[in-house]
């Protein structure tokens, strides 16, 4: 309190001069360097106030605080543009997935600009650098033996000549018999669903009955990491600031054992898989989208690795 009273009495003239970072903002030796991201909003709709409050506004507030503290701060975000939700919206509006992304990226950018959100860079995931970095990470995982191949049974629409992603399938929920359940979740009982478990499934596009068909996919071999992950997790719990909910969920994953996680999808709209036998597939958006933070920064500055591969700062 005494320090605050003293600072107030000395007035604004006694405050340190505001830090003016170079453009683009890069880490500076000897300064506190802060990289801030906010969750990439999905690009198939107009963002509402809840979206902005949920992630963008809190990150913006923190970025402004950091700059007031004269910390060298970079705040990046952008639109998440690949995946089945984009394809679904494209069908609904009679546009191509790229046209949908262009349309809603502009809508998002205009809204955040109107709100005065202080992004240093607001980008998107449908860029050449996104493909380059995502495929590079994939190749590194492959070279280190952290990927495996397995057969997955999926619903295929013979009339549309395509495997149906979760959101392109509707049917009766196997748990509560709700007749309009999606292939990933029932909106009535809330349970997660595997699309092949649906009763009376039909293709959302043409309404025909799909057939169960085996297809090959690539998985992250997460069980290989469990022994290395557990000691790291214990140390992080001891030294980090984890919420009770985050601790509980992570404990349940460890207790049940890490499982292989599929990283590919039988879709056209996405980052192509650069491996023979899988070149007609794309990366599952959950694998692809987090890499967007790196690629958006890379589109902002060629020296992006100074932010993302620089643990000393």
Automatic annotation (TrEMBL):
Annotated PANTHER family: METHIONINE--TRNA LIGASE, METHIONINE--TRNA LIGASE, CYTOPLASMIC
Family: Belongs to the class-I aminoacyl-tRNA synthetase family.
Name of the protein: Methionyl-tRNA synthetase
Transmembrane segments: none
UniProt keyword annotations, A-Z: Aminoacyl-tRNA synthetase, ATP-binding, Ligase, Nucleotide-binding, Protein biosynthesis
A Pfam family it matches: tRNA-synt_1g
Gene Ontology MF annotations: ATP binding; methionine-tRNA ligase activity
GO terms (BP aspect): methionyl-tRNA aminoacylation
Lineage of source species: Eukaryota, Metazoa, Chordata, Craniata, Vertebrata
GO CC annotation terms, alphabetical: aminoacyl-tRNA synthetase multienzyme complex; cytosol
Catalytic activity: tRNA(Met) + L-methionine + ATP = L-methionyl-tRNA(Met) + AMP + diphosphate
Segments forming domain Methionyl/Leucyl tRNA synthetase: 34-310
């Amino acid at each position: 309190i005494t320090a605050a009273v003293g600072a107030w009495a000395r007035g604004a003239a006694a405050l340190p001069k505001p830090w003016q970072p170079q453009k683009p903002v890069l880490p500076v030796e000897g300064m506190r360097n802060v990289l801030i991201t906010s969750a990439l909003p999905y690009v198939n709709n107009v963002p509402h106030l809840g979206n902005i409050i949920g992630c963008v506004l809190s990150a913006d507030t923190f970025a402004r605080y950091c700059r007031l503290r004269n910390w060298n701060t970079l705040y990046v975000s952008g639109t998440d543009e690949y995946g089945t939700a984009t394809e679904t919206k494209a069908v609904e509006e009679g546009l191509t997935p790229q046209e949908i992304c262009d349309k809603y990226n502009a809508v998002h950018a205009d809204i955040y600009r109107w709100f005065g959100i202080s992004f240093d860079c607001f980008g998107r995931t449908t860029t050449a650098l996104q493909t380059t970095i995502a495929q590079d990470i994939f190749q590194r995982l492959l070279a280190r033996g952290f990927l495996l191949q397995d057969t997955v049974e999926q619903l295929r629409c013979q009339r549309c000549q395509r495997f149906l992603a979760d959101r392109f399938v509707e049917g009766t929920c196997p748990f509560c018999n709700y007749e309009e359940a999606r292939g990933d979740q029932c909106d009535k009982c809330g349970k997660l669903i595997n699309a092949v478990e649906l009763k009376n499934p039909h293709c959302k596009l043409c309404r025909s009955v799909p057939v169960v068909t085996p297809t090959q996919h690539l998985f992250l071999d997460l069980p290989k990491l469990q022994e290395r992950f557990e000691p790291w997790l214990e140390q992080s719990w001891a030294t980090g600031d984890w919420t009770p909910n985050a601790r509980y969920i992570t404990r349940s994953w460890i207790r049940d054992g890490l499982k292989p996680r599929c990283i590919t999808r039988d879709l056209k709209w996405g980052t192509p898989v650069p491996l023979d036998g899988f070149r007609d597939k794309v990366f599952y958006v959950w694998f692809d989208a987090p890499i967007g933070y790196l690629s958006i920064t890379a589109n902002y500055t060629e020296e992006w690795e100074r932010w993302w591969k620089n643990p000393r700062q």
